[in-house]
Amino acid sequence: MSTWRTMGLLARINLIVVAVLVFFFAAGIWFSYRLQRDYVLQEAIEKARLVAQEAIRTREYLSRQLVTGQVRLNLERYGLIPVVASQRIGRQIADDLGYVIRQTSLRTRNPVNKPDAFERQALERFVAEPELKEVYRISDTDGPAVFRYLKPFVADQSCLQCHGDPGQAPEFIKKLFPPDKDQAYNYRIGEVIGAASV
């Protein structure tokens, strides 16, 4: 005879109540886990957006100064080049938040900025889908799970001083990055020139 048939009515009711409670307890834990995970993801997205936006705003501010002629670039002012300044300031802010930021491009000038596989894929999407404003995901391909976020940089007039026609680039830029050996020239206004990678 089966155990169920030999149980008394009270034992059966208790077993059913326990099973229902276990089910709802497990469902509650699962639901709570999902809420926590979604909250953590949204928090990571917001922080990454802030870090990336800071880099973009720094670049835009310095770009306006270059376009209006308030800043003239030379080797002594290398740190005032919009992309250089935004990268340095962005790193300090990212460090404060426990993040890492870097700038990358499909046509890098500095080999350190060469995109990894995820960054390359995101950059290619930004080029193919100009309306795309950000790409993010949780990646665990190189070890523990890590949140990844990219926001594109779009070339404006000030970018073209160093990244447009190499003949028009400042002399110190041409000396540092000879046009015949550098792939980061010949961008056009509105073209995706790179991305902030958080």
Largest sheet: 4 strands, antiparallel
Helix content: 40-55%
| Percent of residues in beta strands | 5-15%
Q: Give the neighbour order of strands across the main sheet.
A: 1-4-3-2
Overall SS class: alpha+beta
Q: Which residues form runs of ≥5 with pLDDT under 50?
A: none
Shape: elongated
> What's the total count of β strands?
4
Straight-line distance between termini = 64 Å
The Cα radius of gyration reads 26 Å
For the record, the count of structural domains works out to: 1
If you had to describe this structure to a student in words, what would you say it looks like?
The chain is of the alpha+beta class. The protein has one domain. Helices cover 51% and strands 12% of the residues. It is built from 6 helices and 4 strands; from the N terminus they run αααβαββααβ. Strands 1-4-3-2 form a 4-stranded antiparallel beta sheet, with helices on both faces. A hairpin with a 6-residue loop joins strand 2 and strand 3. The chain is elongated. The termini are far apart. The model has no long low-confidence stretch (mean pLDDT 87).
Question: Secondary-structure map with pairings?
Answer:
Blueprint: H1 3-6, H2 9-67, H3 82-97, E1 102-104, H4 117-128, E2 135-139, E3 146-154, H5 160-163, H6 171-176, E4 192-197
Antiparallel strand pairs: 1-4, 2-3, 3-4
Helix pairs in contact: 2-3
